[in-house]
Design goal:
This protein is an alpha+beta fold and 162 residues long. A hairpin with a 4-residue loop joins strand 4 and strand 5 (80-85). Helix content is 41%, strand content 22%.
Length: 162
């Protein structure tokens, strides 16, 4: 059981949080805590390639300001959001393998991530955005070329609409 301390003025209250599956060992907990939310090696590699192609973008930005989630790379004028998904966290069909421990937690967790990804894609599409999703194992040059193609097409569409 974990206790959370809340301070309201001088009053301190304790709330007991339910014990749930967190990490199966101290080593697993350290690995989980070390995972970065942004600026991962695959993201940096793709961003370097995009920059080399002459593209300028925003990093770790909310394409839709009223939503809590962020895209890894955002082209605001072209309305293109790029997500570099981790093979484990997003359930890559080629590389994901179910953990041997804590399976009652990880199976639903990965399924929720995939559901959220689909909801994010749908919300962005409804708002007129193009979404590019790439796996962390994809070569950065391939991802950058795919992104550049989408951005170029969106810019051409915008010019044609004027």
């Amino acid at each position: 059981m974990v206790a959370l301390v809340e301070m309201a003025g001088t009053e301190i209250t304790l709330q007991h949080l339910p014990a749930g599956p967190w990490a199966s060992s101290a080593a697993v907990r350290n690995v989980m805590r070390a995972n970065r939310k942004r600026d991962t090696a695959p993201e940096l590699a793709v961003r370097r390639r995009l920059h080399a192609l002459g593209l300028r973008y925003r990093v770790n930005c909310r394409p839709l300001p009223d939503k809590r989630w962020t895209a890894d790379v955002v082209f605001t004028r072209a309305r293109v959001a790029v997500f570099i998904d981790g093979c484990f966290w997003h359930g890559c069909p080629a590389h994901f393998s179910q953990p041997r421990t804590n399976t009652s937690y990880w199976g639903p967790k990965i399924a929720r991530n995939q559901t959220r990804d689909a909801q994010v894609d749908a919300a962005l599409a409804d708002a007129g955005w193009a979404v590019v999703r790439a796996w962390e194992h994809e070569p950065a040059s391939d991802v950058a070329e795919r992104v550049a193609t989408v951005v170029s097409a969106r810019r051409q569409e915008a010019l044609g609409a004027r």
